[in-house]
Specification:
alpha/beta, Rossmann fold, two-stranded antiparallel sheet, 18% strand
């Protein structure tokens, strides 16, 4: 019997300040993070997920959540975290329409593999674009065929949305999660409320279903021996980084990662330096 637990890597991307770190902590630990710091590089959290829970196919998986910093100053170097990737969570602020519109830019930045825009020359994440430019630059059919990777759209700061301005208004305005564009489900939540994705809630079911889709996609590519359908990168990677976790080492690793005080978060913060790429 194997003592290893397989893993999948999921990126959380979005503009700086939309709440990715709080969201990542909530998903991984089921609790809110009231004083998050600015992410420099990437924060990594790990969640144990039961694949197809309650069925004969149930199996534990480690979900690696890569919270990638959204600062423009690291745009040319953060692509080091983009591959290999099994799933993508696009995060936007429900009170910030611009952060929602920029999700298209994040998708193309990831799919470009080198961290460069695939929009027309002169475009940039966070840059102003007219409606016509955006429509001409984004081809939903071409995107779906190129990505073939599970995507989930999550809107944060639901508690700050005016009662007269429902989240559905935000969805209709941008529409990045519509089936005809990238086939993604959408979740709106308050990251400061642990009940937002508590077990048994509709959003918790959506999130679990998304994790299952990510795992299924990885299983399909592994069984067929073809990895070209996901995101790949030309850089060399240490082969040990793609090996599954060994159960005999989990206790030792967990003990070594224990925080010095109850207020510390069990995360890995990776600092990017452009000159190392």
């Amino acid at each position: 019997m194997s003592n290893t637990i397989d893993k999948v890597r999921i990126l959380l991307v979005g503009d700086s300040g939309v709440g990715k770190t709080c969201l990542t902590h909530l998903i991984a630990h089921g609790e809110s993070l009231h004083r998050p710091g600015w992410t420099v590089g990437c924060n990594i959290e790990v969640k144990l997920h039961e694949y197809k829970e309650g069925t004969p196919q149930q199996k534990p998986y480690f979900i690696e959540l890569f919270d990638v910093g959204g600062s423009l100053s690291h745009k040319n170097s953060r692509s080091v975290f983009y591959a290999p990737t099994d799933g993508i969570i696009l995060v936007h602020d429900l009170t910030n329409r611009k952060s929602h519109n920029n999700l298209r830019d994040w998708l193309f930045e990831i799919l470009s593999k080198e961290g460069k825009d695939t929009y027309k020359p002169g475009s940039n994440v966070g840059a102003h674009k007219t409606a016509n430019d955006e429509q001409n630059a984004f081809d939903p059919e071409e995107f779906v065929g190129a990505a073939q990777i599970p995507i989930l759209v999550m809107g944060t700061k639901l508690d700050l949305v005016d009662e007269r301005r429902q989240p559905k208004t935000v969805q209709k305005a941008g529409g990045i999660g519509k089936t005809e564009q990238c086939g993604a489900e959408e979740i709106w939540l308050n990251c400061r409320d642990p009940r937002s994705i508590a077990a048994g809630t509709t959003d918790a079911v959506k999130l679990s279903r998304f994790f299952d889709r990510v795992i299924e996609k990885k299983q399909q590519t592994r069984d067929t021996g073809f990895y070209g359908s996901g995101i790949t990168d030309r850089r060399r990677y240490n082969t040990t980084s793609t090996m599954p976790y060994n159960m005999t080492n989990i206790t030792t690793a967990a003990n070594s990662m224990k925080p010095n005080s109850p207020t510390q978060t069990q995360t890995r913060n990776v600092l990017i330096e452009p000159n190392v790429l």
